[in-house]
Amino acid sequence: QVMLAESGGGMVQTGESLKLTCASRRHTFSTEYMGWYRRAPGKELELVASCAWDGRQTHYDTSVKGRFTISKDNTKNILYLQMNDLKPEDTAMYYCNALGSPWPWGQGTQVTVSS
Fold first, then answer.
1. How far apart are CA 3 and CA 26, in angstroms?
2. What percentage of the chain has pLDDT greater than the value 90?
3. Residues 6+ apart with CB under 8 A from 75
4. Taking the mean position of all CA atoms in its chain, how far away is CA 65?
5. What was the pLDDT predicted at 6?
6. What region does 39 belong to: left with phi over 0, alpha with psi -120 to 50, or beta?
7. HEC states along the chain?
8. What mean pLDDT do residues 42-63 have?
9. Is the pLDDT of residue 58 over 90?
10. With 90 as the cut, is the pLDDT of residue 105 above it?
11. How far apart, in whole angstroms, are the C-alpha atoms of residue 53 and residue 45?
């Protein structure tokens, strides 16, 4: 049973946008600090964006600040990541999870940005 399901990835060109979605039928997002992570080929998993349980407080890695926006819809139990002005260095597998005590990881969604 898939606990976390990420979607919305794809292949785009530099400067284009994508919106990632994370949903779960098992876990409740409304009480959790949530984050979007990514793993680029040959690199460690990194946290790129996070938000508080109510979605109001957000934090971004410097590499994506000003280009990515994390948001939550607690009524739908969905986490989003709006990614604008994408760059080749954003190419990675993207995952969502709770911060602090992560749940089992989902399969992720691949984002590939060509120059």
1. 6
2. 87
3. none
4. 13
5. 97
6. beta
7. CCCCEEECCEEEECCCCEEEEEECCCCCCCCCCEEEEEECCCCCCEEEEEECCCCCCEEECCCCCCCEEEEEECCCCEEEEEECCCCHHHCEEEEEEECCCCCCCCCCEEEEEEC
8. 96
9. yes
10. yes
11. 22
Q: Is the pLDDT of residue 49 over 90?
A: yes
The closest alpha carbon to 64, from 46, 78, 79, belongs to 46
Closest CA to 24 of 67, 79, 100: 79
Residue 85 gets the label, from left (phi > 0), alpha (psi -120 to 50) or beta, of left
For 62, phi then psi, to 5°, come to: -60, -25
Token pair, residue 77, equals 């139990």
106 pLDDT more than 90: yes
